TrEMBL record:
Residues 29-384 form the Plant heme peroxidase family profile domain. Belongs to the protein kinase superfamily. CAMK Ser/Thr protein kinase family. SNF1 subfamily. One of its GO terms (molecular function) is heme binding. Residues 300-324 form the NAF domain. Residues 22-276 form the Protein kinase domain. PROSITE patterns: NAF, PEROXIDASE_4, PROTEIN_KINASE_ATP, PROTEIN_KINASE_DOM, PROTEIN_KINASE_ST. This is non-specific serine/threonine protein kinase. GO terms for biological process: response to oxidative stress; signal transduction. Its cofactor is Mn(2+). Its EC number is 2.7.11.1. It catalyses: L-threonyl-[protein] + ATP = O-phospho-L-threonyl-[protein] + ADP + H(+); L-seryl-[protein] + ATP = O-phospho-L-seryl-[protein] + ADP + H(+). The lineage of its organism: Eukaryota, Viridiplantae, Streptophyta, Embryophyta, Tracheophyta.
Length: 440
């Protein structure tokens, strides 16, 4: 943006704009721990949805893991039929999850007004399968698919949302199954009721079948005011198709809602089913590993801290532990400084020379130091946090913990020259100004 336009944009920023970037609008939804608002990016005019999470209310509850998981998973997913995560911001008391705003609202609200035609039901189901298949290929299992968690945009395209109950492959136990009981009763797969473990992909497929039934029938396939009675119907697969359903759709639903997960239809089999492909309207969205790698690279600005790292500086809820790390060794230290990136890197190199340590320059603003007969290996990286602040992070990349700690005690004072009070570091790190404009 040209300098004059940028200055004019700054003058138009409302005084109450969140982080000087988002003008908060009407309340879209409300829960016990979070509220969702419509908001507008004051620089671009783009509409977004912001989930505002109260960290104090979350602490001490089992919903902390749900929030961590949802943010971590959404960060990994880029698909036209999945709600996009733009960025995550944090203050001392709240977390702001900035997401794509889907104007059309919930699919549930639309189908509650009347059942859909078979063709329209197929269209939404095709988009749902495209998103679910993509998630499974990335090792993500939603586990709470239902019309309330499916949104529709202005163009009539479906968007999967709410990954708070999702699981990833890392949660699979040695028996190859997931064991956490979760989901919405009417959409839960029969194998979950047995409490013997389940395949995440299989239970998602069952839920997709229930959704398809609801879209075309206008009501649930398994429903009873008595919860246990409803569970018995689900376990036995007792449901009836209305007379207006075509024979092909009835057959297809029988394959999707097969009570035996071993014989239940898979995503690949769905893609080749005649009913699913009828009319030739379905066009597969191809995603390759290089596309995924490109997305991951786009999310990593080498001169800016990742949003998920910055949240860990904020007082209260610490989300850092749930996010994937490329460094398997946990020993690490970090602090905030007002010195330039070049100055900090220069000080590390001077320290290495004085301590007779070998030092290697890495890409961008990273260095690797080693010595003491292989007992010491430290990686140091400098990230630009804002225009006036940088973050220095040191990690033990090899060797023993003792030498790493001893060396860091010597290095850190060299890096914080001119800092009179180290308490200032934590106050800067936890301030809301340290998380402005952090792209995911």
């Amino acid at each position: 943006m040209p300098e004059i336009e940028q200055q004019e944009a700054l003058l138009r920023i409302p005084e109450n704009a969140l982080f000087g970037k988002y003008e908060q609008g009407k309340l879209l939804g409300c829960g016990a721990f979070a509220k969702v608002y419509h908001a507008r990016n004051v620089f671009t005019g783009q509409s977004v949805a912001i989930k505002v999470i109260n960290k104090k209310k979350l602490n001490g509850t089992n919903l902390v893991s749900n929030v961590k998981r949802e943010i971590s998973i959404m960060r990994r997913l880029r698909h036209p039929n999945i709600v996009k995560l733009y960025e995550v911001l944090a203050s001392k008391t709240k977390i702001y999850v900035v997401m794509e705003f889907v104007k059309g609202g919930e699919l549930f609200a639309k189908v509650s007004k009347g059942r859909f035609s078979e063709n329209l039901s197929r269209k939404y189901f095709q988009q749902l399968i495209s998103a679910v298949g993509y998630c499974h290929s990335r090792g993500v299992y939603h586990r709470d698919l239902k019309p309330e968690n499916l949104l529709v945009d202005d163009s009539g395209n479906l968007k999967v949302s709410d990954f708070g109950l999702s699981a990833v492959t890392g949660q699979i136990r040695p028996d190859g199954l997931l064991h956490t009981l979760c989901g919405t009763p009417a959409y839960v797969a029969p194998e979950i009721l047995t409490k013997k473990g389940y395949d995440g992909a299989k239970v998602d497929m069952w839920s997709c079948g229930v959704i398809l039934y609801v879209l075309n029938a206008g009501y649930l396939p398994f429903n009873d005011p008595n919860l246990m009675a409803m569970y018995k119907k689900i376990y036995k697969g007792e449901f009836r198709c209305p007379k207006w359903m075509s024979a092909d759709l009835k057959r297809f639903l029988g394959r999707v809602m097969d009570t035996n997960p071993m014989t239940r239809i898979t995503v690949d089999e769905v893609l080749n089913d005649p009913w699913f492909r009828k009319g030739g309207e379905y066009k597969a969205i191809q995603f390759h590993d290089e596309d995924y790698d490109k997305v991951e690279e786009e999310q990593k600005d080498v001169t800016s801290l990742n949003a998920f790292d910055i949240i860990s500086f904020s007082a209260g809820l610490d989300l850092s532990g749930f996010f994937e790390s490329t460094n398997p060794i946990e020993d690490s230290e970090r602090f905030v400084s007002s010195e330039s990136v070049e100055t900090m890197v220069g000080r590390v190199e001077e320290f290495a020379k004085d301590e007779k340590l070998r030092v290697w320059r890495k890409k961008n603003w990273g260095l690797e130091m080693g010595g003491q007969n292989g007992n010491l290996a430290i990686g140091v990286e400098v990230f630009r946090l804002t225009e006036s602040l940088v973050v220095v992070e040191a990690k033990r990349t090899g060797g023993d913990t003792g030498p790493f700690r001893d060396t860091w005690k010597k290095l850190r004072p060299r890096l914080v020259l001119g800092r009179e009070d180290e308490e200032e570091e934590s106050s800067i790190a936890s301030s809301s100004s340290s998380v402005q404009v952090i792209e995911c």
